[in-house]
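WARN no homologs supplied; continuing
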Amino acid sequence: MAKKSKNYVAAKEKVDRTKKYDVEEAVALAKEIDFAKFDASVEVSYNLNIDVKKADQQIRGAMVLPHGTGKTQTVVVIAKGEKAAEAEAAGADFVGEEELITKINDGWLDFDVMVATPDMMGQVGRLGRVLGPKGLMPNPKTGTVTMDVTKAVNDIKAGQVTYRADKAGIVNVPIGKVSFDDNKLVENFKALHEQIMRVKPATAKGIYITSLTLATTFGPGIKINVESL
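OK structure emitted
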């Protein structure tokens, strides 16, 4: 295991490991102990008591945070004709069809999100080996396979985040930057929490959220009292 930096050790010492912090307190503490030389992201990590091997317990989706994420997303749209024109008008960074698919297939990945119209998914499917490992494959559940390309581009540019439970039932989502006002981070966190509760699988048994932590990019995890949300 890599040796932790002095800064990390010093930051960790300020976190009470035996305590679950209320959300407002946790946000303030995370900002106070952040030592990054840049405007670090603030992320939350949900450990959910779900069995993602069961189709009805998989959690995946997208939502727009009230105050965005502080990051400008570069959006590629694979569409043709009228839909391509709509995507351009909505502010997509790159729009195209066959030639753009070929460019991506050749290794160009200078974007954060891809949106595609359903009629183009047959061709986009060829990019599975390129996009799959990067988590960039368009998906109807995250609103990135759609005929409403205007809404998709607007939502992404407005600060949409995607969430997905991994094999262990863990969901990691950014809720903003250290430079955000505390109240904006809290409101983003609460909005995300409402969504995570809303998508709780009906078949999930027992305690749904087994643990919840908040951390900055390089900072230590701060345990959250779920009741405070």
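The mean pLDDT is 94.
OK
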